[in-house]
Amino acid sequence: MCIKTLLAPLVVVLLASQSFAFPVEVRSCDRDLVFERPPRAAVSNDINITEMMLVLGLEGHMVGYTDVPDETGFLPQLRPQLSNLKSLSPDRATAEVLLEAGADFYFAGWNYGLTVGGEVTPENLERFGIAVYELTESCIHVGPKTRASINDLYADLLNLGKIFGVERRAEHLVASYRRQLRELRDSASADRESVRVFVYDSGENTPFTAGRYAMPTALIEAAGGRNVFDDFNRSWATVGWEAVIDRDPEIVVIVDYGNVTAEQKWQFMITNPAFRDLTAVRNNRFVVLDYIEATPGPQNIGAIRKLSAAFHTR
Length: 314
Prior knowledge:
Blueprint: H1 3-14, E1 24-28, E2 31-35, E3 42-45, H2 47-55, E4 62-66, H3 79-82, E5 87-89, H4 95-100, E6 105-110, E7 113-114, H5 122-126, E8 131-134, H6 150-163, H7 167-187, E9 195-200, E10 208-210, H8 215-222, E11 225-227, E12 236-238, H9 241-247, E13 251-256, H10 262-271, H11 279-282, E14 286-290, H12 291-294, H13 300-311
Parallel strand pairs: 3-4, 3-6, 4-5, 6-7, 6-8, 9-11, 9-13, 13-14
Antiparallel strand pairs: 1-2, 10-12
């Protein structure tokens, strides 16, 4: 299904007037937040989080975004909205950047702009009158650990809907996503075991991969696969190549970002003698996900479709 189809239900909903009573209360990791009115000077951090704001039509409530050095990954339909916003910093926001922008709200995640023990935390920014909403998938860094789920994305969209007074808009969008994944699940073959999948993010000496608390695990499961490190009690972390070889993935998902291209990662794996007996390498079964597809955000739905197509093709 094309992106236009994915966003079609949203276009209709955006036209509807929205009026919701304030104050509202939402849960952000282990904190309860109360908003007396919608934020008027919001800042988002990272491309996936910024896209969550834009897909709900919240650019009018924003003063800018941070940590998006390359804007080409945004959905084309969202770029006109993006053009009305300012890149406040190509790197993660500092308190100074947020204060200079006059921010009253910051949407970020732990390791997506928030750092445990660092300068930019909900507690520190609260002193300056800046409310912080934390990306749900990232909450494992500061609270009880829960397995990654596509429901993390839904929770963030629905909470943003409440915070900014566009609750019905968010509900319609989430309902559309749920329906699309239900249809995908119904159309997929159910007569085979889940395919074994390894997520290759980066690293040659030791690979950086997704554990049970990272979004790719949820995407893989929604597409009918199983992350070979779904028992690894981490979000994103380093493992040993020996463990990868022992678990013999049938498919390798390459996360495409940074200075090392997806092509280079693929070449490294298929030319390294240590990997020649891996089922994925022998059959040359690789799937590439862009960074924005592999991290929580609207492009997760298309990523699940891409993975499902790869998993169910021999």
